[in-house]
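Lab notes, practical 5.
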Amino acid sequence: MLSFAVVAALLTIIPGLDTILVLRASISQGRPHGYATALGINAGAMAWGAAAAVGASALLAASETAFAVLQFAGAGYMIWLGGTMLWRSFRHGPAKSLEDPHAAPARGGLVLSWAKGAGTNLLNPKVGVFYIAMIPQFIPEGVSPLGMGIALAAVHNLLGLIWFSLIINGTHLVRGKLQRPSFVRATDRVTGLALVGFGASLALKGR
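Output from the prediction step:
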């Protein structure tokens, strides 16, 4: 588990889609939504870890069709999510700061933020391939594959939550500047473009 923790820690701090989503939620919607998004991402990672441990995600490695279906579903989801952010950021009308007491509450609440994080991970076949490549290598003989797979995924989740907490609370410390309407719009546009880019790359790439 210690060896896996070292590998997982290095992968966790590499900037990627998960970091972008948590950062965006923290800036645009506040600290609770940042944590909700992070927990959703962790839930998706836990599901992939359990699937990899029991061999269920081996289907992705063995079946071109299964991989392609999940690949295009994930690409479509990311493009839709990014496109929605872009559309909202360019809507006419004055944007309200999150510090404004008269600002409308975030649509969908914390559950929606959690679902965005979970959906992004669950619909990304690259995450499944990573877990099926890594998890089995760290399962010793004589232990329950499912139990060990969940334990390793939990280690990854713990490291991820520590990293996300640094991002979320760091953002919270300077929220007065970051939550200005113009900055929030810019964040949504950058995040939206990143999501569309990730989605397009996923759709166009093979294995």
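Observations recorded by the TA: Confidence is low (pLDDT under 50) at residues 93-107. Residues 20-72+118-180 form one domain.
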